[in-house]
Amino acid sequence: MEQLKTIGRELAMGSQGGFGQSKEFLDLVKSIGEARSKAEEDRIVLSEIDILKRRLLEPDIPKRKMKEYIIRLVYIEMLGHDASFGYIHAVKMTHDDNLLLKRTGYLAVTLFLNEDHDLIILIVNTIQKDLRSDNFLVVCAALNAICRLINEETIPAVLPQVVELLNHQKEAVRKKAIMALHRFHRKSPSSVSHLITNFRKRLCDNDPGVMGATLCPLFDLISEDVSSYKDLVSSFVSILKQVTERRLPKSYDYHQMPAPFIQIKLLKIMALLGSGDKNASEIMSMVLGDLFRKCDSSTNIGNAILYECIRCISCILPNPKLLEAAADAISKFLKSDSHNLKYMGIDGLGRLIKISPDIAEQHQLAVIDCLEDPDDTLKRKTFELLYKMTKSSNVEVIVDRMIDYMISINDNHYKTEIASRCVELAEQFAPSNQWFIQIMNKVFEHAGDLVNIKVAHNLMRLIAEGFGEDDDDADSKLRLSAVESYLQLISEPKLPSLFLQVISWVLGEYGTADGKYSASYISGKLCDVADAYSSDETVKGYAVSALMKIYAFEIASGRKVDVLPECQSLIEELLASHSTDLQQRAYELQALLALDARAVESILPLDASCEDIEVDKDLSFLNGYIQQAIESGAQPYISERERSGMFETTDYHPQDHHEVPSHALRFEAYELPKPSGPPQASNELVPVPEPSYYSESHQPISTSLVSERESSEIKLRLDGVKQKWGRPSYQSTTSSSSTTQQAANGTPTYSDAGVGSSSSKPRSSYEPKKPEIDPEKQRLAASLFGGPSSRTDKKSSSGGHKPAKGTVNKPAAVPKENQTPVQPPPDLLDLGEPTATTVTAMDPFKELEGLLDSSSQDGGSSDVMGLYSDAAPVTTTTSVDSLLSELSDSSKGNPRTYQSQTSKGPNTKEALEKDALVRQMGVNPTSVPVLDMGSTVDVRWGSPTFHKMGNEKFKAAFSSFNDVKLSMCNLAIRNRIRKLCFRAGGNRRDSEGVKRYVGKWCGSEEKNPGHFNYDMYMYWDEEPNWKSVPPLKTP
Amino acid sequence: MIKAVMMLNTQGKPRLAKFYDYMPVEKQQELIRGVFSVLCSRPENVSNFLEIDSLFGPDSRLVYKHYATLYFVLVFDGSENELAMLDLIQVLVETLDKCFSNVCELDIVFNYSKMHAVLDEIVFGGQVLETSSAEVMKAVEEISKLEAASNSISLVPKSVSGWRGR
């Protein structure tokens, strides 16, 4: 133990690069890694904070120690704890002359501080000095810090030096200076506006890296102001050409592509410059065509460039040849098995569809596959595409799909988005009013709390105003259907508040209008609502207002009103409500019940919610009363200002005096074209019988001025919608195949026979030809893509036939390309299964032989074992040891991979070194049991799914072995070690076992560049009295 | 612009997190947790892209890649190409692989400052600065060489420095 500590300290002293931290730090990392709960982790970190606080107060801390403390602070902050007590030390460290310390200081401050932090002031000076340093690394570190720490006010302090650095001899510095300047530009464009020419100059830099870096700021600049960079079009094109012709140094190649990231940036810029510019588009078309030809679509990065080309083509002026190439590329993407490429394909399709709408047709089945894919990202992207291609012919299918998906997800953010899209599409393309109401009902039912309140007002207004031109009959039918649907839904538990408001309002207005439902039935339902949602005052308010309307209509029509007992009790409860609004409503209702039919009718006339209310601003109806009063000796009214003598002008109207105090505030908000604006609010508390109270019948919630405003806005929007709906050709165009097929969804069918049969024809003609494609999907495809040109055809009544023909022609081309997605994709990534079968098929006896064989070989060669030759359980050790190596090849049963294993195989020395180091550093427990595997485990264990299929494989390999008992994942060695398991990745939740780092596990058969390894740990559980044998030795 | 780079392990512990716009610590933690909860609910063999407006504001995308015990995550806005970002992760990992030879999670934990040095060479102030892993390596090596030179005393045992030198 002591020894370990000294080694740790020794290492810490010489800290740099590698395992440069002290044992304390490693212990911290380790214990956090093993923490079983967040609370435990917090406790560990808090105690670490305590330690650091104390340490930092000590005088004369050695610099290297200090550096480690700073790193520990950074680490703590990464784990989400406040390390602000140490910020000042990080700042101090930036002043140090030692490069390492300085860099650490800069790293820490860039992670700790924001640009407006008080301590920045202390750093600016250092940065200025460092920017002038001879050592380019110091300059780089300072430039790095600038990006994060400089704000608008401090930019001028460093700007001249940064500009100077643009001509620095080192390309690394030039690059970073450009980026720093770019950052300044983002922060405060005005501060560097005079330096923008520098970016243009740097575009011609000798170093491709610098040139590539310059593209970032240029992209920003160009997207702000396209026109002043048109002259650069040819330069960008020629750069791109040179890049594709491999004129750049080899080091910029990435997966055999020449400087792909630069190409992508260039394409992005070209898309900006080329949009709407014929000249530029023509210059670009050549090089774009070349790119399509040259791009290697087998690599990820090649596809990235292809996608960028598609994007670029969709932005510049359309060129038929390029569009064709783009469509080809998209179809390749869509047919690929990779979800990433499908995603890009869908995205590209969404872009191209704006230019050539019929492009989606040939990919219909691929799109539907994506729609049904389990991958959420892909699904959402596909919905986005569908949203873009929605038209009146397919709106029903698309919106139905969207709603189904909306119901299935829990992510509120996306739910809101998709709900608003549903509403938007429904408003824009609704084929019929009933359908619209149904869709809205669904949206409200499942996402009612998430949609904008405007949508609800909108719906109420639609129902009130009716949809048809002058067809009262249709309107009342519609209202009846709305009422019926609401009566059905109302008993569902937990409806969203907004939906209940709509329901209450509609029931109040139209519940009894048709005479189908009795007043007592509707009022009973409304009472139930008020009861069930007693905590929601808004809903209650709506319900009471609705009750009031129902009773008013009853009274007005001369029927006797029986107030249900539950209504009576509701009213009584509300009379004593804490909410003044509810109280008022209850009192009003009570007062109304006592009035006669004539009075009631003038208060709440039947179906008058759409009528405009004329507001008498001058309160002229009071004139007679005032006159009378004055005549009988009352004083004329003197406004408050006049009374206090502060106001001289006399021609002020009484109501103006109300507005004056808040004049400044109200001025803009009340600027409404409608007369029904502000004065209403002040009228609210006028007693019931007065005529101005008519306004109440409009808005159940009378208090809100905002809603008044909103509804008037909505009205404006609706007018446009209404026009659309009013078109007589509507019914015939929308009755394409979709309607009939979706009947199952409960959508009423409106199809007239002629069109219906024409659209069903194509299906019957091609269905038998390709039975392998799910007819469901085909139908969906037909309904989604069926009417490609119906948007334009809307006006002509014969339009419905054209799309149908389009579908007839298609099938011939479709079947071939659509078979690919139907086939099960080759299970390339899951390598587990084949290996597993070979393992289980193995003969246990042969296995045993093999194991013994290799154990004798391995036992001899294993030099680590030699160290522990006097250890008691050596035999066990070697067996397990060799078992593992045996396992690695036997489980594969594949000579080829075995070879690859040996060729790439264990670097014994390396593994030893590392293991020893790790052990010294205290990752492992202080007492290391005999079971040492240091030399063998860095073998690339051939089984790629080892930790997933581990149980099976272990069982298969070890079951015949005498000394080993296996209990599922854990491997028990009789008498000595109760449990043993290996685990990739260091974090184990139940850290009761002893842990030991054994090396890395490659995890896959072939090692590509840019591979990541698993850390392998070994866990075991010891018998209570078992002592570990050898003392720790350093190799 | 790149908004954030994160490396999380499969347990949700951040191994490296860098935000290119200032975020208070609590916000950072919230985002890390949010990202992790999204990532760990993703099944295997699905795309590496995510739209993540709910966490990072409008027009935010996320690209992630799962290597052994680590998730590499890039968050960026619409001005970057998703596939290219995926390859940027690959560049980063390739560089780390060269840097540490057979890189694994422990290397990242214990070489915190070096990780940042590598990352700073690749992404600078939210923009992609360098994408050739050879160039990045060159820069990082130069830094460590100079750092070593500026460090006058070295008490590191030979075996260790040999290991570190790789």
From TrEMBL, chain A:
Comp. bias (Basic and acidic residues): 707-722, 764-779
Positions with biased composition (Polar residues): 694-706, 892-906
GO biological process: intracellular protein transport; vesicle-mediated transport
CC per GO annotation: AP-4 adaptor complex; endomembrane system
InterPro entries per UniProt: Adaptor_Complx_Large_Subunit, AP4_complex_esu, ARM-like, ARM-type_fold, Clathrin/coatomer_adapt-like_N
Entry's localization field: Endomembrane system
Region described as Disordered: spans on this chain: 671-833, 885-909
Domain Clathrin/coatomer adaptor adaptin-like N-terminal: 59-594
Stretches assigned to coiled coil: none
UniProt keyword annotations, A-Z: Golgi apparatus, Membrane, Protein transport, Transport
Main location: membrane
Biased composition (Low complexity): 731-742
Family to which this protein belongs: Belongs to the adaptor complexes large subunit family.
Free-text function comment from the UniProt entry: Subunit of novel type of clathrin- or non-clathrin-associated protein coat involved in targeting proteins from the trans-Golgi network (TGN) to the endosomal-lysosomal system.
Self-association and partners: Adaptor protein complex 4 (AP-4) is a heterotetramer composed of two large adaptins, a medium adaptin and a small adaptin.
Protein name per the record: AP-4 complex subunit epsilon
Automatic annotation (TrEMBL), chain B:
Segments forming domain AP complex mu/sigma subunit: 1-146
Gene Ontology cellular component list: AP-3 adaptor complex; cytoplasmic vesicle membrane; Golgi apparatus
Top-rank lineage group of the source organism: Eukaryota
Membrane topology: Peripheral membrane protein
Keyword vocabulary terms for this entry: Cytoplasmic vesicle, Golgi apparatus, Membrane, Protein transport, Transport
Subcellular location: Cytoplasmic vesicle membrane; Golgi apparatus
Predominant place of localization: membrane
Pfam families: Clat_adaptor_s
Alphabetized PANTHER family for the sequence: ADAPTOR COMPLEXES SMALL SUBUNIT FAMILY (PTHR11753)
Protein name: AP complex subunit sigma
Organism: Arabidopsis suecica (Swedish thale-cress)
